[in-house]
Amino acid sequence: MILRLAHVEVAVDDLDAAHGFYVGLLGFVEHSRDGGRLLLRGCEELDCWSLSLVERGGPGLTHSAYRVAVRADLDELEALHARLGLATERLPAGHEPGHGPLLRVATPDGHRSEFVHEIDEIDPYVEGRLALPMRRPAAHPGGVPPTRIDHVSLRVPGVAESLRYWCDTLGFSASELWLREDEQPHIAWIRRQTRSHDVALGEAPEPAFHHFAYAVADAAALVRAADLLGDARQQQRIEWGPGRHGATNALAMYVRDPAGNRLELYAGDYARDLDRPPLRWRVPDYRLQGHSWWGFPAPDSFGETAPLLEPDSPASARA
Amino acid sequence: MILRLAHVEVAVDDLDAAHGFYVGLLGFVEHSRDGGRLLLRGCEELDCWSLSLVERGGPGLTHSAYRVAVRADLDELEALHARLGLATERLPAGHEPGHGPLLRVATPDGHRSEFVHEIDEIDPYVEGRLALPMRRPAAHPGGVPPTRIDHVSLRVPGVAESLRYWCDTLGFSASELWLREDEQPHIAWIRRQTRSHDVALGEAPEPAFHHFAYAVADAAALVRAADLLGDARQQQRIEWGPGRHGATNALAMYVRDPAGNRLELYAGDYARDLDRPPLRWRVPDYRLQGHSWWGFPAPDSFGETAPLLEPDSPASARA
Amino acid sequence: MILRLAHVEVAVDDLDAAHGFYVGLLGFVEHSRDGGRLLLRGCEELDCWSLSLVERGGPGLTHSAYRVAVRADLDELEALHARLGLATERLPAGHEPGHGPLLRVATPDGHRSEFVHEIDEIDPYVEGRLALPMRRPAAHPGGVPPTRIDHVSLRVPGVAESLRYWCDTLGFSASELWLREDEQPHIAWIRRQTRSHDVALGEAPEPAFHHFAYAVADAAALVRAADLLGDARQQQRIEWGPGRHGATNALAMYVRDPAGNRLELYAGDYARDLDRPPLRWRVPDYRLQGHSWWGFPAPDSFGETAPLLEPDSPASARA
Amino acid sequence: MILRLAHVEVAVDDLDAAHGFYVGLLGFVEHSRDGGRLLLRGCEELDCWSLSLVERGGPGLTHSAYRVAVRADLDELEALHARLGLATERLPAGHEPGHGPLLRVATPDGHRSEFVHEIDEIDPYVEGRLALPMRRPAAHPGGVPPTRIDHVSLRVPGVAESLRYWCDTLGFSASELWLREDEQPHIAWIRRQTRSHDVALGEAPEPAFHHFAYAVADAAALVRAADLLGDARQQQRIEWGPGRHGATNALAMYVRDPAGNRLELYAGDYARDLDRPPLRWRVPDYRLQGHSWWGFPAPDSFGETAPLLEPDSPASARA
């Protein structure tokens, strides 16, 4: 059983610039920097990391990863993908730092996913006392800061077909749908936990990467994020927001990192059981009220996507 | 499989006073008022109601109710409680308005629980358009408002024994524990979803009711709640807070309703998988930092509890 | 000595629609509605009213009004305007409800101002106790609410010339200036109290009315305002924001009322003594960072202005 | 004419500890540290500093300082104090770093005040562009941060007598009064600008120092301040709050610095002209609703005061 989104791996072109942006400006917590790879987490996460930034010519996404309930789920998911004729690969414990054995798969809609059960948590105790577990880190008082990974937004060439894989086969549940006039889904928000989504699937000519999202505490944290960018004379990195989404009911702001990857900072959300029917947004509601409950439109650049990149091979494994 | 807390039923002594407080002042959304019973929900809930206030000599709790994944879970839970020698009762669809068939049980630690699968949702569409689903209701712009039911806090005569029932038998997972010097739990926060808790179990001589909690949007909503109470010259209803809990990391305020029931307004929280080990708070951390991260103590009255009341019998069923 | 902006009078085309918007949706406090005139105030004001809405074919501005330190200031201001060859008019106590004797003048840049000393305050006591003076009104818990009038933004055909009147003659102090490449001011923010401005003067071909502004408590109140508009399906009334201004450092949102008048909701600001030199914004900073510290531009419609309307004459005085 | 409170000088026992607390934890901006003196300001102030911390056995207050409109006001104030038989002293430009000539006086109620006109402002431009004037400093993204000095709270042996000096002689205006049953003032909030106060005068057996206050942006900043103290395991420094004052309508939190000085962090406030009559709080309203609009009382330690210390003499002048 899939539990939730666990991490994303995003390509950047300059790891120093990425470090300055994610750690220095926004306040992500650094787990490690090794070779061309920077591993980060939000300040309330106990998982040792949830964002992998690799220096290999970004922007782009190599894969998203999902935690499963027990290790045996990997066998079941391997068999399931084999039955579908999709490539799978087992990677040993430690291939991802702090992670147990992995299953890597090609999805039918052109993406790569990893499944994993064991993810090391950081030790929440210092000298026997709880030391700020899931809290604002005393060691890094600046920044926004982001609290935890929230979702990844993928572009797929057929949302309806993708939902057959993600929902009917993998057990994701659609929380909200934006329907075209022909009642076919144009964007689907799907999840394995009770918030609005782990993954968003949006229609596009080719598989591609739209954005990834981290939660922040509240509206005040979004204001702080926007102010930090303005104060650093980087207001041009803000692509949309802060604003309220109709779909998902979140307060959100989209920011471009120095490599051009789109990061959403996300506050709010709701809880609803997985067996409930999805909320359905219809044209012409969506553009005005589904995307932007406060009415201001996304800029043209919001349609841009980043490519999907090949993950590294075991032969080039990160030791 | 139990999904989450679904509702609580709380006794009040004056339903008009309760209506003024919960609906008029705090901004709960009214589902129905019928006979001596007022059914309410938070403004982001689609479940038709999550709080039942009954006029029968409060303060007190009759029962808490939990949603299960499929109707067949009721049979399984009935058999499980029978094996434990605990009283069970099946109640027909409609016994609780808008609910399907129920299983009512006596818990081994002296409480009453209901399990139910079918709970009607409100229609989120008006004239074919999404009408503020899970949002601030246009029809009720005042109040705080509370967004959704969060948890119930029960007192039990032995937390360790209670955890054997709630966790080992029913499948709840402890997120945080306050341990005594003998390493036995004094308070346990347990859940079936990934937030910190559906239920808190605290040690006490007898089974009793400590409080129930509704989520609010953020710190600003808590400030607004405190201001509304002050403006209405009801500041004496505020028992503790607003303040930050160490355990659960929530911003919270405890308020006494006109009957004396303790309502917690709750902002913040975090997400963590159910299979993770609980965070452990130890004396002397707890009083200073577990309960009150900002250091100010709870008043003596915070130790007071309210009684458990008999639920109505089917013979006196609410038609 | 002029103390501050006291009120503005704005024209609307439908007083019922204005009442629904200002009182019903945004939470302005109603002082009175009489004939074609609705008098309102913010929830923290003790002045009996600060916004006059008149039903006479809006959008448009008839005048802005300023409180003076003593009644004798009216004589001095009358003489001063006479020396400048500008029309003046004395109006008796009660011409504006709750106001003492007024001096009405034509400004050299095409606007009308009123000066007044006596403005009735509401009684802040109920049964001998302070009843929410300068606070959130218990009688009107909905809405944003706006707290107090902040400033009025006028368009004038020559900002440099206007500053000679407003600053050199009347004693206003410029807090911030947006300078053109020739170092001439394009917009000036001027004040008689220590916040950033009572009046903004912006260059335009003809004298005109750009917007008026009310303060709100904080960023959370701006979010609430935007949500209330979205929930009411009036998101199209939001013209810009919520966002951060560079100039004045305020969080702000511009909203069009049903008649088309532009209302700014304004949070933040700072304090600086009147004798300090103005902060100077220069091209190309202004469009990106002076107007929008977060980078998103104002829409084209933000250039639109509303006309200046003739004030009523004493002959048609409001009895 | 006195404009406003300009700075306070507070005694600490350990300047390193003070630096860690004020700069490292809370985010005050450092102007200079020289010998035993640390000069700080809030992040929105252009005045070069507003808080002087001197290492000389705190807690305690040496003096508070007030800015006047023109330098000639010093002569007038010197004559005025001489007529009252009060000691005065002229100090040259540079005695206080970045300040022009000073007048130091003994007040009739046992305090020391300084009056000054010239206070250097920091240069708000970097390479010709406005560099975050009156804003969150990019160079110090952590901390709360405090924005500007707000007020100082003094204890005096007779509030009614003190008001004759501060209001009738110096021209301060009382915004709010807490009256005893005999209608005599027990605490007075007085100001020379339009916010609620520059100075609070509270009744006590001897002249003493109660607290000084800095403004913060909003409720979210207060929550952040409390969290930073909790995260640093310094929650015992929080003496009261965060909470709402009835008098002044501010959100506030009182914190003890490492030397024991009481610092108030203060959000909210209002504006009212100086000629308006004071709001009058009466027993028994004050304790419940004047001090604490949310109802929770101040601890006994809130009655403690710190001593008044002799200012340094010109002979020991800071070169």
Report on this model:
Four copies of one chain form a homotetramer. By secondary structure, chain A is α+β, with helices and mostly antiparallel strands. Chain A has two domains: 2-122, Roll (2,3-Dihydroxybiphenyl 1,2-Dioxygenase, domain 1); 148-303, 2,3-Dihydroxybiphenyl 1,2-Dioxygenase, domain 1 (Roll). Chain A is built from five helices and 19 strands. Chain A has helices spanning 15-25, 72-83, 159-169, 219-231, 285-291, and strands at residues 2-12, 29-34, 37-41, 51-55, 61-68, 88-91, 102-106, 112-116, 125-126, 129-130, 148-156, 173-179, 185-191, 199-203, 208-215, 238-244, 251-256, 262-267, 279-282. A nine-stranded mixed beta sheet of chain A has the order 16-17-18-15-11-14-13-12-19, sandwiched between helices. Chain A has an eight-stranded mixed beta sheet with strand order 2-3-4-1-5-8-7-6, with helices on one face. Chain A has a two-stranded antiparallel ribbon with strand order 9-10. Chain A is globular, with a radius of gyration of 19 Å. Chain A starts with a strand and ends in a 28-residue tail after the last helix. Chains in contact: A-B, A-C, A-D, B-C, B-D, C-D. Chains A and B meet through β10, β19 and α5 of A and β10, β19 and α5 of B.
